[in-house]
Amino acid sequence: MLRPQDTATRERRSLTGIWDFRLDGTGAGHDARWFAGPLADARPMPVPASFNDIVPDVEVKNHVGDAWYQTSARVPRGWAGERIVLRFDSATHRAVVWINDTEVMRHEGGYTPFEADVTELVTPGDEVRITAAVNNELNFQSLPPGVVQEGPRGRKQTYFHDFFNYAGIHRPVYLYATPTTYVSDITVVTDFDGAAGARTGKVSYDVVVSGDGSQDVRVLLRDADGEVVATGDGASGELTVQDAHLWAPGDGYLYELEAQVVDGDALVDSYLQTVGIRTVEVRGTQFLINGEPFYFTGFGKHEDQAVRGKAHDDAMLVHDFELLDWIGANSFRTSHYPYADEVYDYADRQGIVVIDETSAVGQNMGVMSGMMGMPAIETFSPETINDESREVHAQAIRELIARDKNHPSIVLWSIANEPESASDASREYFEPLFALAKELDTTRPVGFVNVMLSPFGTCKLAEFSDVIMLNRYYGWYVDTGDLEVAEEHWRAELQGWASLDKPIIITEYGADTVAGLHSTTADPWTEEFQSAYLDMNHRVFDSIDAVVGEQVWNFADFQTSQMVFRVDGNKKGAFTRDRRPKAAAHLLRKRWTGKSDPSWAGSDRD
Ligand code: GCB
After folding, report:
1. Which residues are bridge partners to 39 per DSSP?
2. What Gene Ontology molecular-function terms does this entry list (predicted)?
């Protein structure tokens, strides 16, 4: 699904702003047809934002059920004769949407876009009412999973992942117009021959035209200076780029492919697709980008901040990338869900490498019973995560790859974080999902993130993974505080994984750290301990050749549900929630850039 754009033939109207909002814990609004008129008893709510922290009220914060949003918009007069589409970049975790009195779409899954052709329902120049019933409930058939139970004070949501269940309309909403014959999809795949100086880039493209698809397609490829470097006729083909400038980590060089639908000399539609020419390959224990071994440095991140919750925010985006640059991170994982489109666009431009993850997190009842003391239940069973859940998961993989396939920054798909992976049931559940991801994208490796409860020798999914991704907390959740013993245990396990002859990325290692808490003896929770813990991990990684990456958990402190071992959230950040560096951030910066502080003595950017 292509993003809305303003081009020579297309126009967008953003619907971000303050909408009317009303909670509906019992689901009464559907029967009472709240969409059929102005939303009664509404309060203001910003879009995009999570609703949870906007209002200082625990009922809003912990709401379970529907949340109704409504706004009105005037359809631009100039859109007469065009195809008009209503698009939500996301609504967490599912939504039903109406235009005036007519339901126009339903969508399951909180982190991917959905849209509907509303041409027949609107009149250019007139106002329309747009209503969305956004539901935040998690169950065994949703991603991520959860359970809603009746409690003494109403319904209560529990879930099995370690971040707050923020909900609402987290990303932009648009009305947009395209011609009635329009480009509906583009796929680009890149390759190159030869070495620097005499390098020939190859850009295979496939353009899908909808509407009256009989019209011709023409493509133009422009370089970063706007010069046309290749052209093609027909809906698919391969363009050749002489002396191609590759996209590479740290060098986000982008070409732009303009896909035109033409009728003789007349331009019917035009869509602009950025293109980074690069290759990705796994060879033995190496992860190669453009044929060169790549070592991931960086973090697992979250879309998380005070007040806005999980809403996309450009100021935070640019600031976070500046901090990635400062600290010397070349990559991050979109733990634990697909991020806003803007994040990948910016990663493409900045040359930051991305591991793109679905929202399959918490599919592991062993973690719940082992660590959180919940009664042991089976993860994969007809009553819990079952065939229906797998179909939801498959759809999430389809939507992720369809949305993100053209980003050069994305080098690896992660189809799940820490699922149960030592049982036959997990193997049965996951085998077809790996096959699906590999069929949908033959150009990128596919993996999943392994949990400590499935150590080397027990995991039944590793054989399907092109890359081994490990989350390990030796010295924190096990061997707590005893870094010497932790180092021995960690190295021993990692040596086992290294024998599989696949590249290994450590996708999580970290220790909760309260900024400002210090001790001379490096006790857990202090800044000294976090630094010592990271040092220990780095010694282990540096001793094993198959390790091709280290991503600290987490970039910044983030909000979680209330638990006895979380102090106002998870504190494993290298930065605090408001992005102040802990001592560990300086340590990482030294390791990843070689630069020593004080960086505050003056600008050290080169
Ligand atoms: C994990 C999870 C992550 C948690 C982290 C922790 O393994 O993947 O979501 O936040 O551990 O801090 O416990």
Report:
1. none
2. beta-glucuronidase activity; carbohydrate binding
Q: Identify whether residues 401 and 460 lie together within a single domain.
A: yes
DSSP 3-state of 571? coil
Question: What count of Cα atoms within 13 Å lies in the side-chain half-sphere of residue 436?
Answer: 20
Does residue 302's CB lie within 6 angstroms of at least one atom of ligand 1?
A: no
Any domain includes 1: no
| Domain contains 4 | no
Span from the CA of 501 to the centroid of ligand 1 (angstroms): 26
Task: Report the atom number in ligand 1 closest to the C-alpha of 336.
Answer: 9
**pLDDT tens digits along 479-535:** 999 999 999 999 999 999 999 999 999 999 999 999 999 999 999 999 999 999 999
Residue 606, pLDDT score = 47
Q: Which residues contact 336 (CB under 8 A, 6 or more apart)?
A: 144, 161, 163, 302, 357, 359, 360, 361, 417
Is residue 484 annotated as part of the catalytic site, yes or no?
no
Q: Check if 560 has its Cβ closer than 6 Å to any atom of ligand 1.
A: no
Residue 129 identity:
R
Ligand 1 atom with minimal separation from the 558 CA: 10
The single residue listed with the structure tokens 């195809």 is 83
User: What is the domain-level CATH number for residue 202?
Assistant: 2.60.40.10
What distance in angstroms lies between residue 451's CA and the mean position of ligand 1's atoms? 9
Give the residue, by CA position, lying nearest to ligand 1 atom 6.
Answer: 162
Residue 604 lies in a domain: no
Q: Ligand 1 atom closest to Cα of 451?
A: 7
CATH number at residue 435: 3.20.20.80
The question of whether 508 is a catalytic residue gets the answer yes
Separation of CA 368 and ligand 1 centre (Å)? 12
CA-nearest residue, atom 5 of ligand 1 = 162
Q: Which residues contact 250 (CB under 8 A, 6 or more apart)?
A: 330, 351
Residue 162 sits in a domain whose CATH number is 2.60.120.260
pLDDT at 261: 97
Is the per-residue pLDDT at 600 higher than 60? no
Residues 227 and 345 reside in one and the same domain: no
Asked if 228 and 329 sit in the same domain, the reply is: no
- Average pLDDT score, the chain: 96
Side by side, the strands of the sheet bearing 83-88 are: 11-14, 173-178, 83-88, 114-117
Alpha carbon distances (Å) from 553 to 42, 434, 489 = 39, 25, 19
Please write the tens of the pLDDT for every residue from 277-291.
999 999 999 999 999
Q: Is residue 305 domain-shared with residue 262, that is, in the same domain? A: no
Distance CA 239, CA 75 (A): 39
Region 135-163: what's the mean pLDDT? 95
Distance between CA atoms of residues 194 and 244, nearest Å? 10
Residue 324, burial from CB neighbour count under 10 angstroms (0-12, 13-18, 19+)? buried
Does residue 3 sit within a domain?
A: no
- The tally of domains found in the chain comes to 3
Q: What is the model's pLDDT at position 1?
A: 87
Indicate whether 385 and 304 sit together in one domain.
yes
Q: How confident is the model at residue 434 (pLDDT cuts 50, 70, 90)?
A: very high
Task: State the catalytic residue, choosing from 137, 399, 420, 508.
Answer: 508
CA triple 22-25-31, angle to 5 deg: 80
